[in-house]
């Protein structure tokens, strides 16, 4: 708590112990308010990286679409959702570690939704493209979604790392991938052109930021997505 005098107000002496409890109370109130704001904006409980890391394996088909995007869910699902996402984006991380788990449980694993991931790395995130390459290199070994989950759950470990590749290789080892093949893929830039193409396609439809979700050609924010899925399923 600041001890600087405020204009027009005198400083009153206070008991140090009382001041301590006041500070603790203020911190608690701020924390509760922040959690409530997150819940209201996302329609979910607080994001939990550990929940993403410890969840059971996804109980749904996975693969790549004809135009090269990774999907999860039944190809003949009644609703298709495209997420335009950036692995370094903190809002994408909050979505992946929270609401996306519920969407997987309620819609993807029940055959109601085909979920397609579109890379849309933002220029202000220097590690977004390397992370997207890591996910696609894992995808070459049928592990795109496990790497997707690992990257978002550990975002704070690599997002500010000037050379994140070694961290990505350690993730590949954790997923029991062939680390030599993964490293070769990562260092060769094998998927760089695909990611650039995905980014360009997102730009062409004027994706405003990440995460953005598209259903039936219309764009939505994360806080709208469950309502929109439900509405689409009723059609």
Q: Tell me the number of strands.
A: 6
Average pLDDT number: 85
* Strand arrangement across the biggest beta sheet: 1-2-4-3-5-6
CA gyration radius, whole angstroms? 21 Å
Tell me the number of helical segments per DSSP (H or I, 4 or more residues long): 11
Percent helix range: 40-55%
Whole-Å distance between the termini? Answer: 55 Å
Layout: helices, strands, pairs:
Elements: H1 16-42, H2 49-54, E1 62-64, E2 70-72, E3 79-85, H3 90-96, H4 99-108, E4 113-119, H5 128-139, H6 144-153, H7 155-158, H8 165-174, H9 179-188, H10 192-204, E5 212-215, E6 218-220, H11 225-234
Parallel strand pairs: 3-4
Antiparallel strand pairs: 1-2, 2-4, 3-5, 5-6
What does this structure look like?
- The chain has 235 residues and is α+β, with helices and mostly antiparallel strands.
- 51% of the residues lie in helices and 11% in strands.
- It contains 11 helices and 6 strands.
- It has helices at residues 16-42, 49-54, 90-96, 99-108, 128-139, 144-153, 155-158, 165-174, 179-188, 192-204, 225-234; strands spanning 62-64, 70-72, 79-85, 113-119, 212-215, 218-220.
- β5 (212-215) and β6 form a beta hairpin.
- The radius of gyration is 21 Å and the shape is globular.
- Mean pLDDT is 85; it is low at 1-45.
Keywords:
alpha+beta, Glutaredoxin, 2 domains, six-stranded mixed beta sheet, 11 helices, 6 strands, 51% helix, disordered N terminus
Write a concise synopsis of the structure shown:
By secondary structure, the protein is of the alpha+beta class.
């Amino acid at each position: 708590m600041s001890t600087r005098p405020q204009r027009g107000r005198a400083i009153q002496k206070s008991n140090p112990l009382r001041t301590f409890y006041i500070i603790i109370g203020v911190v608690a109130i701020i924390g509760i308010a922040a959690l409530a704001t997150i819940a209201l904006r996302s329609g979910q409980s607080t994001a939990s990286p550990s929940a993403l890391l410890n969840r059971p394996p996804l109980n749904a088909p996975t693969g790549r679409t004809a135009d090269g995007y990774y999907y999860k869910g039944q190809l003949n699902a009644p609703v298709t959702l495209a997420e335009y996402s950036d692995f370094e984006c903190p809002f994408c991380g909050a979505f992946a570690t929270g609401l996306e788990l519920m969407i997987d449980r309620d819609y993807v694993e029940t055959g109601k939704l085909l979920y397609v991931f579109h890379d849309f790395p933002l220029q202000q995130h220097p590690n977004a493209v390397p992370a997207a390459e890591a996910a696609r290199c894992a995808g070459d070994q049928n592990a795109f979604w496990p790497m997707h989950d690992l990257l978002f759950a550990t975002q704070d470990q690599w997002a500010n790392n000037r050379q994140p590749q070694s961290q990505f290789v350690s993730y590949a080892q954790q997923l029991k991938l062939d680390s030599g093949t993964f490293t070769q893929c990562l260092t060769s830039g094998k998927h760089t052109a695909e990611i650039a193409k995905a980014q360009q396609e997102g730009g062409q439809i004027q994706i405003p930021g990440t995460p953005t979700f598209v259903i039936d050609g219309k764009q939505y924010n994360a806080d709208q997505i469950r309502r929109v899925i439900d509405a689409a399923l009723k059609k």
